[in-house]
Amino acid sequence: MCFSTPGLNEHISGVILHEETLFQKDASGKDMVDIIKENGMIPGVKVDKAYNKKGMWGTQVGPLGHPEVSGLGLDDLQQRAAAAYKQGARFVKWRNVLQLDPEKGLPSKLAIADTVHTLARYASICQSERLVPIVEPEIVPNGSHDIQYCAKMTEEVLSAQFAALALHNVHLEGMVLKPNMVKSGLTGPKVDSNTVAAYTVQALLRTVPPAMPGIFFLSGETALDEDNEETATINLSAMNKLRDNLPWHLSFSYGKALQKTCIVTWMGKTENNQAAQQALKARSNANSDAVRGVYVAGSCASIGVDGNVKQADGPY
To answer: Number of C-alpha atoms within 13 angstroms, CB side, residue 237?
Structure first.
């Protein structure tokens, strides 16, 4: 239903699939990747195998409720990357998770070092199989930290990440970065979108080489009383409005913040397909406006905060 949305390629260039979906067919027997390609978009695939919540020995428990973690999936990545390319994928994604807690000194030096090494190794393996890697060192917003601490640690992580990418001979022009926005913790001091934009762009200018073609933000979790779709769009628009001479393209690679209203409109019912597709197209269009810094807050219909609860109970 999502992949076949009419005109979606006007705003969406690529679709990230789970490995299972990459090899699946729809009910009529058509390959999922063919539906995406025929609609003018590029198939990609998530290749990390998440992480074990038991975490790394000796690290402290963070705001996610478990110790610091290491990403899984490098051991057979070479073979899986080759199979993904053969199936039609042309880019890949790997997410590593870091937690913030200023009182506990999180993320630790160990967690940062492990994250940037794992992501650099993944990127180099996938480039060797002709796939474009999305490098995603996600600093999650859970916690009560302020935006200044998030900015400090985001800069430290990104600096370490690009040093690791250089060490692993990753071709920067053949990859993209998927970072977190610089934000306060979910239970921390509230700030407006212009502040988020200013701190985020500052962190990127201090750490990301101009050789990087594009930065595609993850939307990240938001508080249950906050409309994550609208907030992510407004934040992105504020960044692109802030400066017109940035060395890289600032865009979006959203999950929930792109699909929430679509999914809640659909709720697994065929008779809702057209309305759900229209919702997906509308939010995609809103984010295209945000890439140009011209999105008008409130101009795209959203299920709002009520959707946070409905989505959790639905097929999403």
So the answer is: 21
Look-up: residue for tokens 């219909």?
301
Instruction: Write the pLDDT tens digit of every residue in 197-209.
Output: 999 999 999 999 9
Are 192 and 186 a contacting pair, CB within 8 Å? no
Q: Is the Cβ–Cβ distance between 138 and 95 less than 8 Å?
A: yes
Q: Measured between alpha carbons, how far is 275 from 268 in angstroms, rounded to an integer?
A: 12
233: which 2 tokens? Answer: 């769009």
CATH code of the domain containing 153 = 3.20.20.70
Instruction: Please report, rounded to a whole number, the percentage of residues in the chain having pLDDT higher than 90.
Output: 92
Q: Which residues are catalytic?
A: 136, 178
Q: pLDDT of 62-74, one tens digit each? A: 999 999 999 999 9
Whether 1 is covered by a domain: the verdict is: no
Instruction: Please give the backbone phi and psi of residue 14, each rounded to the nearest 5 degrees, phi first.
Output: -145, 155
Residue 3 maps to a domain: no
- For 191-228, b/e burial (b = at least 16 CB within 10 A) is bebebbbbbbbebbeebbeeebeebbbbbbebeeeebb
